[in-house]
Every structure is written in C-alpha cells, then in structure tokens.
Amino acid sequence: MDALINLEDWWKSVYVLFAFCSAFFLGALKGFLVGPIACLILIAGNVGIILGLLPAHIGWTIYAVVKTNRYDIPLKVAILFALPALFGIWLGLSIAGNVLVGIGYGFFTPWISTFEAFRHDNESKKIFHCVVDGTWGTIKGSCTVVTDFADICYHSYPAFLKEFRESPQSNEVQTLRLILVPGCIIAGVMGLVVDIPLFTAIAIVKSPYMLLKGWFRLLHDLVSREGPFLETACIPIAGLTILMWPIIVVGSILISIFSSFFIGLYGSVVVYQERSFRRGLAYVIAMVAEFDEYTNDWLYLREGTIFPRPRYRKVKEESLSSGGNNGAGGKFSYASPEAPGMFIPNLAHSVSVREAIHEVKMVQIWEHMIRSCEMRGKELLNSGAITPSELHEYLKAKNSSEGATISVGLPCYSLLHTLLNSIKAGSNGLLLIDGVEVNYWNRPKDKLLDWFFNPIMVLKEQIRVLKLEESEIKYLEKVVLFGSNTRRMNAWDNGSLLPEDALIGAQIQGISRRMIGMVRGVSKLPTYRRRFRRVVKDLILYSQENDGCHGRSSPSSVASSEEV
Questions:
Q1: pLDDT digits (tens, 9 = 90+) for 382-436
Q2: Which structural domain, as residue segments, surrounds residue 208?
Q3: What is the pTM of this model?
Q4: Which of 173, 189, 212 is where one domain is finished?
Q5: Are strands 430-431 and 437-438 parallel, antiparallel or unpaired?
Q6: Domain tally for the chain?
C-alpha cells in the first residue's frame, strides 16, 4: 500500500513537472508572438496621448494657477516659473514608465495567463485555455489601458484642476516669502543629489537579501506544501513565481529609484511649509533613514536604522516616542507622514488560495459599485426619476458639469442605499450586494481604499445616529440624486416630505455634500469612467427593451379590452 502511494505521488510530481515545463515554453512562445503587438499599442498610444495633450495640460495648469485664490500673486509667479521643470520631469518619467509598463505587460501577461489556465478543473478546458488565454485578451487589454490612461489625462486631470481652481475662498491665503526661494531651490536640488543615490544604493545592497529571502520562503512552501503550493492546480503558478522572482526584485529597485525623485523634490515643500531651510535639509537626511527602516521592516531585518534621523516637523514633544536614531526605541521617534514608497512583496508566511477567498478583494468592492449603480439605475428608470434622454446626454457630455444627475447623482443614490442597507442589517461595515460584509478586519489593506473607506464609515455612523424617518430618507434620496436642482426634486414624487426641523434639514444637506464629494473623488480613478459609461449604455438598452415590450403588448391589451 505504501508503495502504491509513493508511486502515485511520483506520477503526480512528474505530471506537475511536465505541465510546468509545457506551460513555461508555451507561455514564452505566446509572449514573443503577442508581446510586440501589445507593447507597441500600449507604448504608442500612451506616449501619443502624453505628447498630444501636453499643450492642453500646460494651458489648463497655467489657467488654474492664475485663477485660484489659494495663493498670492508672487507665489503664483514662482509656480509658473517652476512649471517648465515640472513638465519636463513629467515628460521624462511618464514616457520611461510607459515604456517599461508596455514591455512588462506585453511580454509577461501571455506568460502568466498560460499558467492561470491551470485553475480550471476540466482537463480539456485547461489545455484550451493554456493555448488561447493571453493572446487576443492581451491585445484587448493593452487597448483598454490606453483608454483608461486617456480618461485620466483628458477627464480626471482637468477635474482636479477645476476643484483646485474653484476651491472656496480660504481665510489664510498662502503667500510667498522671497527669502525662502533660494532655500527651496537648494533643498530641492539637495534632495535629488542626496536621496536618489542613497535610495538606489540601499535598494541595490538589500536586493540580494530580498532575492534569497523570497526564494527561501517560496521553496519552503513548495517543500512543505503550504501557502500557494497547498492546491495542486496552483503549483505551476507558484513555480513561475519562483522563476520570476528576480524580475520582481529588479522592479522593486526601479520603483525605489522612481519614487526617490519625488521624495527628494518634496524637500522644497518642507522648506516652504516650515519656513526653515534647516528643516528642509533635515527632511532630506531623515528620508534616507525612513527608507532604510522601511525596507528593514519589509525584509524582516533588524529594527531601526544606522542613518541619522533629525526632526523636520514642528510637532509636540509628547507625540514623539523616546529613543535614539537606532534600535527599536527609535522606530517611531521621528515618524513622518510622507513615508517613502518602495514595492517590496510580502515575505511573510503566505496563505493558501482557499484562505485568500475569505478575504474581501478590491475587485469585489469595485464590482459591487458597478452592479449597484446598474441595479439602482433600473429602479430609477422604472419610477421615472431619470429618463433615457438624460442617459444619452451624459454620454454626449464633454465635462463633468453636464449630465450631473447621471454622473454624480446615480452613484450617490447607489452609495446611499448601500449605507442604509448596512445600517438596517446591523452590519459593522458595508454590506455588499452579494451579502459579503466589508469591515475593518477583512477589507483590502490598500492605502487608496483608506482614503474612502474611513470617511464612508464615518458617514454611515452619522446617518445611523440621525435615525431618520421614512419621509426624511426619501427626501435624502432626492437631495443626493438631484443636488441643487429643485425643479427635478419637485417633479419626482417619491413620498418624501421636507423636514420640519431645520437642523435635520441642514444635516441632510451636509450628508449629501460629503457624499457628492466622495463620488467625485472616486470618479477620477482609473477605469471608473470606462466602466460607468458601460453601465449607462446597459441602462439605455434596458429602457429600450422596456419600451419595446410595452409597444408589443399594447395591441394585445387593446384587443382584449374590445373583446370584453
């Protein structure tokens, strides 16, 4: 019996090895055939957008700086003089980044897709997807990336500038102190001269350890059949990860170098904010220590750093931890809000695929937003709150101010019902359409999500504490859907009543403004505009199908009435 078990394990190992080798060479072949096409589309498309929209970006930025009321005239002039250098950095880094992304996406996506096909249970499907996946899909994906990048450059960036330009009048207008200008310039140059070489040196010196540590973790999981190697279907994918780990390490080094440009230049901002050239130089030095300690934490090296970490912010003494520059005691002694960024994959014990299923992913939340907008849009179409003509107007709109009921009102209405359903269910977080609860424990550990998740949870608590009546909730629906359009609010009779209590009415208006601000922020994210336009097109088809059904059913209804 033991011999049979050993023989079965041996054949399984042979099968896995043969499948891995076959997928490896097939994926490489697909990468060399499809990669140049996808790479050319992505690089040519994105670089064309960058160069084509550069005059418009310059004009929009200059107009926004001139029109804003946040800065006084001398500071505006200084910013305008600095714009050529900033746009030069944007051109160089964006083109270089797109070239690297295009090469990586074009050549490695077909390769990875070949291994992803092993997740299918059916053997015939597995072979079919190994051959087909990553071919036409990679080319379509490169076109999608170009589309999303165009949306960011043509729609999201002007929206940011509009908010910056039309921001409310500040009580304290930021002024330029001419005495700080030389200090800002010198601090920015020092940041580039000091941070770029030291960031690069730290990343390169620690890269061999990262390479060996990652290989050790992955090989340990392979031998012990833990983590991604727990399921047999995922072994080829994890094997590819072992082979590709050096590329991941190189990518981490490149991202470290890329981030050091912006971290170094931020020294000029620190000089301006703190009104101190000395604190700007302290920031430049402290960032090296922050980065060294950041990489130590990710790679599970000793805590602390050997570099000095001077204080560069005017913070209260009691908010600082005791300790020196080195060791555990000094880990958070001079913690900065601008922690440097470096992509270092987690080298901790990895979870299995089945365990990872229980964690809520960013994709699930994104899909919930889209499906919820479509579902609520159908409800509003059926009730007559929105019309097909408004949907068509949104698709034809050239800016965010046109078609606001669809572009802003519909997502706000959808978000409101998500919050209301979560409150009714007694959820500690957000209850998605499929019944999954997103809370502080299982939510994706993503910095971008933190910007929206925490304010949404605060908004949910504010709505819960108000304990609104049914008519007041209906009124809140009107406010978030139509905003300040009182004519549309009065035209839609959903059973709402204007709150008699002026305080409740003001609180409802405040909730709607915060919700609109959140939705406007989400609308600037990549892929949102493309996916939301698809939702609007599906709603148009839904309305046309309903009109067709009504048109077909009307003659029969007339005939039946005549028979009666």
A1: 988 999 999 998 988 766 666 788 999 999 999 999 999 999 988 888 888 878 8
A2: 177-352
A3: 0.74
A4: 173
A5: antiparallel
A6: 3
